[in-house]
Amino acid sequence: MGYFRPGDVALRREVLHGEPWVVTPTRVVRDGPDLLVVYTAPGTEFGFHPHPRTHHWRELGRTRWTGLGKLQLHRPGDAYSVDLYWQGEQRRFAGFYLNLQAPFRRTAHGFDTLDHALDFWAPVDGDWQELDRDEFEEMVADGKYDAAEAEGIRRTAKEVEAMLTDGRTWWDPAWGSWEPDPGWPVPALPAGWEDHPLP
Predict the structure, then answer these.
(1) In this predicted model, what pLDDT tens digit does every residue of 10-63 receive, in sequence order?
(2) pLDDT score for 89
(3) In the chain, domain spans
(4) What is the mean pLDDT of residues 84-112?
(5) Distance of alpha carbon 119 from alpha carbon 132, whole angstroms
(6) Where is the DUF402 domain (predicted)?
(7) Hey, which end of the chain has fewer CB within 10 Å, N or C?
(8) What is the pLDDT of residues 145-177, one digit of tens each?
(9) Phi-psi domain of 148 (left: phi exceeds 0; alpha: psi -120 through 50; beta: other)
């Protein structure tokens, strides 16, 4: 399966218990053997697949991405992405959000993953912090992740914590100065998005 070109739309799909759950159309910034970078633009519409477990965004009535958009850096095999956020009218870079998730798997239309709830925030003007531990443990108890998956997520969290504590982050901080192409329209869900098969 080939790489996407800058400007292509790639569908970021979450797959839970073997079934598609939610999909977000993203804009490809860079793609290659070592790094996949995608951008979620403000106003991007989410697509919710029929699923036995209703997605929490759908329950909250959250149907589109809000804010200034986010950039996501993915390395093959990593069980997390590095997400960049900006704030305010001046689009000030706020920091790096390490989003624990299943290692991405390429598809013909984008890539599949699954958010793991447990995250870390590393602001530009403060110390890093772990986020959503209680939410993660509640999801384990509720059956979203089985025991083996939960232990793997906890192990990844320890690895990320050690990386942040030691200050040996791998990504280029220059991504904080990145800006989206003003000519890019907000990606839309393609016709038939509900029917894209699993890889």
Answers:
(1) 999 999 999 999 999 999 999 999 999 999 999 999 999 988 888 888 888 889
(2) 86
(3) 9-168
(4) 96
(5) 7
(6) 55-167
(7) N
(8) 999 999 999 999 999 999 999 999 999 999 999
(9) alpha
β-partners of residue 89 are none
pLDDT tens by residue, 118-128:
999 999 998 99
Torsion over CA: 86, 103, 174, 40 (sign): negative
Asked if residue 117 lies in contact with residue 137, where contact means CB atoms within 8 angstroms, the answer is: no
The phi and psi torsions of 177 (rounded to 5 degrees) equal -95, 0
Q: Which two tokens stand for residue 197?
A: 């098969």
Domain 9-168 has CATH 2.40.380.10: yes
Q: Which amino acid is at 86?
A: W
